[in-house]
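Catalogue entry: protein

Sequence with per-residue C-alpha cells
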Amino acid sequence: MKFSYSLLKTLVSGKLPSAKKVGEALSMHSFEVESVSSDTLDVKVPANVYSGRSHHYGLAEEMAAIFSVKPKNIYPRIINAPENRGLLNIDIQEPDLCPRYSGRVFEIKKVGQSEKATKKYLKSCGINPINALVDAMNLAMILTGQPLHVFDYDALAGQKAKKIIVRKSKKGERLLTLDEKTYELPVGTLLIADTNGPLAIAGIKGGAGSGVTSKTKRILVEAANFNGAAIYRSVRAIGLPTDASNRFSHNLSPALVDLGLDCATILLKKMGARLLDSAAAGSFSAKQKKIILPLGAYKKLMGQGVVMSDATRILSALGFSVSPSVKKGEGEIAVLVPLWRDDISTPEDLIEEIARIRGYQNIPPEPPLVALSSHSLSESWAFAARMRTALVGYGLDEAILSSFISPDLAEAQNGTTFIFGQSSSLLRVVNPISQDRSVMRPSLIPGLMSAARANARFFENIGQFEIGKVFAEKEGLPQEKQSVAVVIMRKGDAKVFLEAKGIAEDFLRSMGVYDFLLVARGQEIFVESGAHTVGRILHLEPYRGFYAAAFEFDAEELRQLVKEEKEYAEIPRFPGTWRDVSLLLSATVPIGDVMNTAQSAGPDWLEDVDLIDEFSDEDKLGNGMRSLTLRFRFQAKDRTLSDAEVAQAMEKITEKLRAAYKVQIR
C-alpha cells in the first residue's frame, strides 16, 4: 500500500528524517516497507491491523511514536452536523452484510481542479487526480482508510426525500458503471439502490446513472461498512476489483464510517460546499475497550522494565488514551483503545505495542535462568540412532517412505510372515485413498526396492536404508514392530549379494551382536540367534541391467541381542596364514551349507571361512554349475603353524566337501 511522505509530514509536528530513513525506521519498529521513492513509501500493512493502519492518520501515529514527535490534524471531527431534515432516508435490508451506512447531502459550487499539494499526495499514492470533488473523496480515503462514494443527489429517485436502499441483487439486474461498462449482477450481489433500481455495486463501483456531472448542484456522500467476505465474493463473481473493494475485503471497522465522513465534510467545506442534511442507519458498539496494564507484566514478558512516563508517551502517540489506574501506587495504567484498533484486546497486545516502538533490538540479551534437568533417551530411540550412524558409515543413504503401499508390493519377498510369523496377514486400510495405498507395509524392503528402481534412472550405484515401523494383522488385531532394512543395486555387478551379506554381518558386529548364525534356505540367508530368526539376506529380481540384494532385521529382536560389554581377546602372538580354494559344484547347493561344512571339517585353529568370489558361466563351467572361491584363515594361539599342518587341514576340508557335495577343486 502506497503512502505519501509529503502528506505524512503535515500530520506530525517536528522535523522528520528523509523518506529513506523513515522507511527504515518503520521496517524496524512497525511494518515492512517494501520500497521507498522520493515521495512514496510502499508499506506492507498486516491484515490484522488494517483498520487502524491502512491510512495516513494511522501511519502518522506510528511515526510520532518512533521519532518522539506529536501528531497533529489527526482524526478531526464534525460537531453539531445537521441531521434528519427530511432530505435522506436509509433502509438497510441486509444488516449482516452492511452493519453501518451513513450519508450526507451537500450543496456544491462549480467543481474545479485540486490544489497542487493535493494532486501530489494522490499521485504519490498511485491515484490519478481528476477534479476537486473526486480528489477530496480520495484524499479523505487515504487519510482515514474509509472508502467514500459520491452520488448526484438530484439524479436519485424521489421528489423531496431520497431513499437509499441496501439490498441484494435480483435475477436479471444489470448496472452501467462509471467506466461505461455494463455488468450482469449475479443474484445475491450486495447493491446500493433507490426505488428505481441499482445505483452502485456495494463497496466496489458506482453506476453511471447517478454519477456527478458538470451540472450537479447537490451531492450525496456515502460512507458505509460492508462485510469483507461478501465484497470479496462479489469481486470474484463479477470480475471487478477496485481499490475500495480491496479495503472493504479486509473487514474495516464500522467506526471508520463517521470518521471518513467527517474528514470528507471538512475538505468539502474548504471547497465552499454547504452541508444540508445527514442520515445514518445501522448500529455498532461505540464503546471503547478499556485495558488495565500492569507495568510489571512488561518486565515479566520482555525481560526489562519500562517506566510509566515512557509507556504513556508511546501509547498516547499511537492513539491510545492513557490515564493512571484507579489502584494507585501499583504501577498500573488504564488504556482506552481506539475503536478502529480491533487488533488490541489484551494487556499483552499493549506490551507488544510498547516493545516494538522501543525496539526489540534494544532488549539486552540475557541467558535464561532455568533449572536444567537431565533426561535420558529411550532405548529404542538411542538404538535407532546407533543403527543410523552405522549404516551411513557404509555409504548408504537414508530413505523415509510411506507406510501405505499396494497389496502386490506388500506381498513381494514374503515380508509379512518373516517379521510377524506364519499366522499373520496384511493389515488393510479401511478407507484407502487409492488401491496403491490400501495396506500397511509388512516389510521395509518393497518400498526401498521401488525407491531404488526409481533412482536407477539417474544413478548406477544405489544403496539405501530405512528404519521404521512395519505392520501386520495377527489373530484379528493390528501389530507393529520396528524394522531396519537395506537395499543395494549395482549396474552390471552380479556380486551385489556378497556386498549386502558383508555389510549385514559387519553391521551386526558393529551393533554389538556377535552370537548369530547364517543359515541358507533357497535364495535367502536367514540370520538366527538361538531359537530366534532376527533377519534375512536375499536376492532381488534384476532390473534393467541392475543386480540387487537386500537385508532386513527385526530391530526389536536385534536390540535384545546386543552385548554392551565387550569381551577381551588377546592379540595373537603368532602369525596366521590364509589359503584360498576354488570349488566347482552344482548351483543348487546353498553357499551357506558349503561354508558351514568347511568350518566344521577344519581343526580348532581354523578361525574363519569367507566367500570371496562367485562365478557362473554355462559355456565355461557347464550347465547348472558355478564356481565358489573360499578363503580360510588359520590361527593358532600357541605356535606358528607349519605349511604341512595347514596343507593337512586343507586336504581334510576338501575331502569332506567332495564327499558332501561332489565338488571339484579347480
User: Anything to note?
Assistant: The radius of gyration is 42 Å. The chain has a mean pLDDT of 90. The CA atoms of residues 449 and 487 lie 6 Å apart. The chain has five domains: 2-71, 88-282, 290-335+344-361, 379-561, 577-665.
